[in-house]
Structure formats: C-alpha cells, structure tokens
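batch job 7 of whatever, protein = Pentatricopeptide repeat-containing protein
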Amino acid sequence: MAFVVPQGWYSIHYPAIQSEAASHYKFQRPSTPCFLSFTSKFHNFCSGIQFLKAPSRKPILGRGFSRESSLLEVSSAGQLIKDYVQDGNFEDAITIYVKVLEFGLPVSEFRFFPCLIKAFGGLCDAGKAREIHGHVLKLGVLDDVYDVNSLLGVYGKCGAVEDAIQLFEKMRERDLVSWNTMISGLCHWGDYMGSLRMFSRMVNDYWVLPNRVACLSALSSCSSVQCSVHGREIHGFVVKREIATDQFLVSGLIDMYMKCGDVKNAEYVFGSIVYEESIIGNPVIWNVMISGYVANGRLPQAVELFLEMLEIGLSPDTSTMVAVIGLCSQLLDLALGRQIHKFCYSIQLNHDARVETALMDMCFKCGDSKAGLEIFQRSQNRNIVMWGAIISNFAQSNRPHEALNLFHNYVLEYGFVDSVIVLAVLRACSSLAVRPRGMEIHGLVVKMGFDSDVFVGGALVDMYAKCRDMESAQIVFYRLPARDLVSWNALISGYTQNEFPDEALKAILDMQSDGVKPNAVTVASMLSVCAQLSIMKSCKEVHGYLLRQEFESNVLVSNSLITTYAKCGDIKSSWAIFESMPERTEVSWNSILLGLGMHGHADETFGLLEKMEAAGMKPDHATFTALLSACSHAGRVEEGLKYFKRMVEDYKIEPQLEQYTCMVDLLGRAGHLKHAYDIILAMPCTPDDRIWGSLIGSCKIHHDERLAEVVSDRIFELDPTSIGYRTLLANLYEEYGKWSDVTRIRSDIKGRGLKKTPGCSWIEIDSNVHVFMAGDQSHNQLEEIYATVECLTNEIRKAGYIPQSLTVSVRHDEEALSLFRVIEED
C-alpha cells in the first residue's frame, strides 16, 4: 500500500511549510468547491479536482480517487513543478507542492524532489533552504545522491557554507557532481584555499578523476590566491587527460598564469593551441591574453596581439575593446585612445554600455575630462556602472564639485544609490572637507543600509577626518562590525593629519593586536608621526622595521622616509634614501626639494630643479612651494620673485594660497611689507588667517605698528578665538609702551575666556627625549639647563645681538606676566 501523507500532517510535523503556504505563498483554503486556476498549466493539472470544506483524505478518496489516479496526479504535479522551475517561476513551483500536501496525495511516489529543492534555491534564502532540508529528511528521501546534490547546490546559492560542508561530510555516497558542487561552491564563496583542498582531497584521497568543471573552479581559485604551483599541477593533469585543447580550460589556464604574473607560461599555453582550427576563431582566448598583457604591464605585446587578431580576420567583441581601451588608459595615450574610439564606431561597438564606460574612463585618465563628459551625456545606455564611473573620475580628477552635482542628478533620476557611488561621492566630500554635505551622505548611507559595509565605513572615517571631526570619525570606526586595513589606515591617517600623534601610535598598536598587518600606507602614517614629534630614535626604529619587512623599495615609503629624516634634522639620510631609490616620482623630488630648503641648502635646491626637469618630471604646485620656501628660509628675495614668475609664465601654473603664503613670508621677512600686503590684496583666492599671521609676524620683526593693526583686524574677523595673534599684537604694543592697548587686548582675551596653550619643546640626546613645558621646573637637570642658557645668552651678546627684554609696568600683576612671557623666534 502506498504511503499517503494525511491531511494536516505537514502542519504538525513541519509547520514551516504551512506557515509559508499561508503567509508567503498566499494560499487560501476555499470554503466551497472550486477549481484551481493560478495559471493555465495549473488549471489543466487541477481540472476535475474539487475542494471541499475542511477537506480530508477520506472524503477525497471517497469522491472517486483511486490509487492509480492519485499517482497520476502526483506525476502531473511533479512535471508541472519541473516546468515552473525551468521557467524560473520558483514560488509557483513551491505552491504546487504545498497543494499536493493539502490534497493528501502520496508524496512517497513524488519523483521530482531535485526540482523542488532547486525551486527553494531560487529564492536564495538560507532559512527556506533549511526548511526543505528538514522536510525531505523526515520523508526519508535523502538517501538519493541526486536529492543531496540538489541541496548542496541550494546551500551554495544561499551562501550557507557551513550547512553545505556538514551535509557533504554526512553523505553516504558522493558522485562527481557532489565534489564539483563543493569545489565550485567554495570558490564562489571566496574560500579559495578550501576549494583547492577539496580538489586535492577528491583526487588524492578518493581517487575521483576531476572533469572540466572541477578543473575550471580549481584554476579560478589558483588565480584568486595567485598560486601558480597548484595551477601548474592542474595544468599537468589537464595535459595527461588529453583535454588541453578544451577552449574553456585553455582560457582558464591562460587567465590563471596571467593573474599569477607568469606571462611566459601563459604565452606557452596560448602559442601551443592558438592556431588550431577549433581555437583560432575563439575571441575569448585572445581577449584573455590581451587583458593579461595589460594587467601585467606588457602593453606593447598587448598592442601587437590585438593587431595580429585583426590581421587574421577575427572580429573584436566588447571584451576585446574594453581591454584595448584599458591599455590606452595605462599608456596615458590620448591620441591612440581617440583612434580606438573611431575604430569602435567602425565596428558599431560605440553604443555598447561597457565600451562607452571604458572610453569615458580612458578620457578622464588621459586628462580629457571634457571628452569623457561628452561620451556620458551622449550615451543612451547610462546605467549605474556608468554613473559610478563618471562620479568617481570627477572625484579623482580634483573636480569634486562636479562629482557632487552629478551625484545629486543621479539621486533625482534613480532615487537610490549603490556602495560604489557612495564611495565616490564620499571621496569628493573628503576633497572639499565639506562636513555638512558629508553628513547628508552619511544619513543616506544609514537609510540604504550601507553603514555596516566596511568599505563605506572606511570612506566615512576618512571623510570626517578630512573635515577635522575626529570624534565622529572614531564613532563611525568603532561601530563597524568588521574593520579591515583600509578602515584602520583611514583612522590612523586622520589622527596623523589632525596632529594627534599619541592617538595615532595607539591605533597602530591596536591594529596589530587586532591581527591586521600594516602596509605602505600605515607605515607612511607612522613616519608622519615621527616627523611631527621630531624623534630620530623612533624614525630609525621604523626604518629598521621597513627593512625587515622589505618595504624599502616602495616609493610611497621612501618618500615618507625622505620627509621624516629631514624634519628630524638628518638631511644626509634623506639625501641617501633619495639617491638609492630605483624609481622616483614627482613626490620624491618634491620631498627632497622641501627638505633641502628647510635645512637652508638653497643653492642645492635650485640645482636639483634642473635635474628634476632633465629626468622628465614636470614641476607642480608642491615643487614651487618647496622652492619658494627655500628662498624664504635663505632670504633670497630675487630668486623667489624669479621662480614665482616662472611658475606663472613658463609652466602656466596658477598660484594657490600655499604659494602666495610663501611669497608673503619671503617678502615680509626681508622687510618688503607693503609689497607683501599688496600681494594679499591682489591674489584671486581668499586669504586665510595663516597668510595674515605671517604678515603680522613680519610687522613685529620690522616694527611696523600701523600695518600690524590693519592686519590684526583682518585676522580677528577670520578667527575671533585666536589667542596667539592677540598675544603677538600685545607684545608689539608693549614694545612701544602703549599700555592702554595692552590692557585692552588683555581684557579682550579674558572676556572671551581664551587661554594660551603652554609652549612645549623637546630634544633627543643619547636616545633619550627631554620634554620642556613653559613654566615647568620639574626637570632633574634644571639648574644645569638654566646655567647653560645664561652662558649662551652671554655669548650672543658678545657677538652683537641684544636680547629683547620684557619690561612690564608695576601695574601688571602676576597673571599679566605669565600671559606675555613668550619665547621669541627669529
């Protein structure tokens, strides 16, 4: 007698299916007889079957259903489920099975469990996958390897890795499909080493010969982890099995070797089969070779292979052109890029969305943002990828305003965002340091549910850090469910840029305690902290760590070392590192130029500029900042004016605030106060408190009281809370004996509640750092220190320098004395 599931069995033994039927699949049990007619197929299946109120097995059988008719209906239902699954109508397929249970039909005769399980997999819901697993387990049909393989595939689609592994390990019987499912599934889930271990286990422990599917998945895993050793083993197996001419395996082998950086073996595989009749006309293999050449920097070979492809009459497809356009982007060859653009027109690929996106990206990379924008505006295929590309390119091209405007238009058009576009627009906010707009994006990120994304979280940390809001940066960082190297670097860089060296050092230690290994960016931040603290010992310790970790060949690290040694007072080490660099960028040259200027080596700085140009490097804003700073430190006014003029006229570089500040400092130090003041008034950019502060410092040096009053008014408009400039102005008034003005400024400071941060300095002697605070008398060698200061003061008096004495009226109390006791700097 056939086993028939009683009416209501599933509600007792498997309530999840009933709840799904009642809620998700909207199943309603009719109270009066009716025909089911969800679709035409289901109507045909159910024709003649009537529902009774509170139906049960007995009345159904009693209405004329024989065992044979029940089996026929089960078979028809199974075929209908199979058809629905093939059409992708997964929910309808599951609804059919729920009806089979509702009718009380003999599910023991159901032969379509693999299709039913596949339907649950189509929902991509791990919870529902576990429900059908439990159901078929209770029915006792999991002894069939086909059913178990279907469940493995479902868990794979749902990303339920542990469930799949547990099910696989409990299988009594495994076939090649079982192994393939696990190997490909682990690769898909990102467990590449697990995929390779499963492949090895299949071959070595169970003597199962892998087929093409297993080999392709294993090769993909080798590519992802750049493991050419295992890749070569698989290659050998493929050759022995005489399947080395399989087009998919050939593509997989070439891709694996290229991604592992083994171009020679990739060329060997390609050359050994490319001219075979079954291979030569396959553009996919040619595309993999061209893309591999581009990825490995073999650009001439990529061009040559592309031309050879055209010569044999093989028509390029979208992937070919995307690879070739990427080649132009790497070469930064706009002329070649335009030729490729015309070629895309000739083969009618210019309207392909992928090709348009690649062309647009190429134009931006080659410096023609106008052409890139035109491609975007003309495109009829604008999708999310293209929007993300243009917003990212504007953000990376130092045009953040355009990036924000495009983002606004995108949101109006689509009404939603993805993580790639969010990352691009956050970069634009970071460039502009616009905290309000960044907070708006942050709110959108939370609404869209991206706040737990580690990449978006890192970008938010960087944005708040650039906006000098480290408190918000910390909150975002510590709320992240997972923190990767990028997010740690964003926090550490933020501490460094905002002059929190102690917090930066602590974060570096915490990062390593968290099991995250520093990279070149982390090391650059570490060196920046050493530069801020000017501690030579720490700088050398970090340098030693870099040598042990083989970071010394990294250009970013070498540039940071040059700057750090210069700021720590060791320009010889900076020069030695610069000289030993196998590759130098514009930043490398600018770093050594700034270091030489900082140490007063003006002539060497000027001479190095000529060598920089001879090396093919183009001076930029940072270059001229270094040159003008060197002129300022050395008091070389004529050279400073000459380089400022060359920057504008010869190099067509529009001066920015940094260069104007250098010029004002240079002229002010030399006593050309009016010229410096006129430059500030005439410059196109808005002056900040630093440039005015430089001028007021020069006014004090050259005793220009009138101009100092004018400049101070400008400073206090920009920064009403500034105490440093108020103190400077008070010292100037004190020199002229204007005690009423001194009292006025002192009262203003007190009325605003401003407090001057005590001065702090330190010096490193014999690997020990000695710290001195203003007014602090806690040093154990205090008497020796002051005796030495007195001795030095006497020596400089003998040399003709008259130290400025601080005379204060007896009307001033002790608070006034502490307020105006400042260390004069020349």
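notes: Residues 655-756 form a domain with the Serine Threonine Protein Phosphatase 5, Tetratricopeptide repeat fold (CATH 1.25.40.10).
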